Amino acid sequence: MTSAEQPQPPAPRKKTGRRPGGADTRRTVLEAARAEFAARGYEKASMRAIARAAGVDAALLHHYFGSKDRLFLAALEVPIDPRVVVGQVLAGDRATVGERVAGFVLQLWEQPETRDRMLALLRTAATNEQVALLMRGFMATEVVAPAAVELGIPQAELRIELMMSQIVGLAMARYVIGVEPLASAAPAEVAPLLARTVQGYLSGN
Amino acid sequence: MTSAEQPQPPAPRKKTGRRPGGADTRRTVLEAARAEFAARGYEKASMRAIARAAGVDAALLHHYFGSKDRLFLAALEVPIDPRVVVGQVLAGDRATVGERVAGFVLQLWEQPETRDRMLALLRTAATNEQVALLMRGFMATEVVAPAAVELGIPQAELRIELMMSQIVGLAMARYVIGVEPLASAAPAEVAPLLARTVQGYLSGN
Predict the structure, then answer these.
(1) Best mutation target, B134, B135, B158, to test chain A (most A CBs within 10 A)
(2) What is the pLDDT of residues B178-188, one digit of tens each?
(3) CA B70/CA B4 separation, integer angstroms
(4) What mean pLDDT is predicted for residues B10-19?
(5) Which of B75, B107, B139 lies at the terminal end of a domain, its last residue?
(6) B193: nearest CA partner in chain A
(7) Cis peptide before B181 (omega within 30 of 0)
């Protein structure tokens, strides 16, 4: 859950402009953010333009929604902050990084509340090229690039992207298309196989 | 290329019924096949029903288009026969099966003539649930099941499906969405990383 999705503190009373903390304004801001991201892509979208389109003060927008990446996650209703996950996964023992990634991925997709949102995101990205490009921009800037620096091995970006392509391919086969026996296999059966692949990509040899 | 796509021998002259070898009849048969496969799925579609819908003799349909799997590949314009590939890949030294699979996959997707058709298939399957289910049925019956028998290791079907999910995920990321640096990486750079993953899935340990 991103901070933008948590209960908001009472907004300061102002006589002019809308209050970013209010439910109506929140909806207006997220709609403006979706439109701006869709029109200009993740990298070129600006918080200032979103604030202007939503009729709110740019400083208040930053105060209530945080930086561009947090607003993006809130606007697309992404149920996790991938940068937080990457940080946690890479912080531990590198010899077991594959296990941690596999465990996290399966937990995310097996829990109904996060699975439904992930399914919606995946289906939208698979059928809407604009959304796919938007996700690509966010992942490249906010996830792959910093994770590659943290990983610190040759071909780090390429390896991370291959790992992600395995995770998305698995999600498509297991949760969207329902390929059997993969779709019905217990998480405990899938986890070590996925872990081995991820370990191969992230161990750098 | 499937045999059904190769130049056809002259059709025998008949006074009644259509000639399956003629270009018009070939088109009629492939349209009837697509309709039957779409309506009933791969497993339940019948050659007899396709012959009836196309107005051709069932025996002649078998003679000119081969068995149901070959007609399926011709109807969906699949540029390879996956069962032939699987046979060749599994016939060699199992210690290098990952290299052979990676080499084949990259060759298939790097050559413009096969890449275009594979892209069209992938885009159609990604946006059309009926086609995705149809492909799933064909792959399960004609590829995964026989390949698992040939592979002969525990969890063989699960492992083959995980391998296929990596291949499809890679194709989406590299060729459809164009994730960088993966999209621009030389095949020689991607091949060993993919080979290692495939080897892990197919080596059974």
Answers:
(1) B158
(2) 899 999 999 99
(3) 7
(4) 48
(5) B75
(6) A201
(7) yes
- In angstroms, the CA B29 to CA B52 distance is 10
CB atoms within 10 A of CB B12: 10
Whether A196 and A106 map to the same domain: the answer is yes
The answer on A154 and A130 residing in a single domain is yes
If one counts the domains in chain B, the total is 2
ipTM of the complex: 0.81
Least confident of A134-148, B2-16, B131-145, B167-181: B2-16
A101, A144, A153, A165: best to mutate for the B interface, most B CBs within 10 A: A165
Closest by CA position to A31, among listed A15, A13, A16, A18 = A18
- CATH number for the domain spanning A99: value is 1.10.357.10
Given B140, B185, B196, which is nearest A180 (Cβ)?
Answer: B140
Predicted local distance difference test score (pLDDT) of residue A131? 84
**Distance (Å) from the alpha carbon of B79 to chain A's nearest alpha carbon:** 22
A162–B194 CB contact, under 8 Å = yes
CATH of the domain at A31: 1.10.10.60
Q: Give the helix ranges, DSSP H, for A45-67.
A: 47-54, 58-65
* Structural domain span for residue B11: 3-75
Same domain, A48 and A10: yes
Q: Which residues of chain A have pLDDT under 50?
A: 1-16
Distances (CA, A) of B193 to A163, B101, B189, B198: 10, 12, 8, 9
Instruction: Please write the tens of the pLDDT for every residue from B40-57.
Output: 889 899 999 999 999 999
Contact across the interface for B182 and A159, Cβ inside 8 Å? no
Where is the domain boundary, A42, A75, A108? Answer: A75
Tokens 């399926």, located at residue: B72
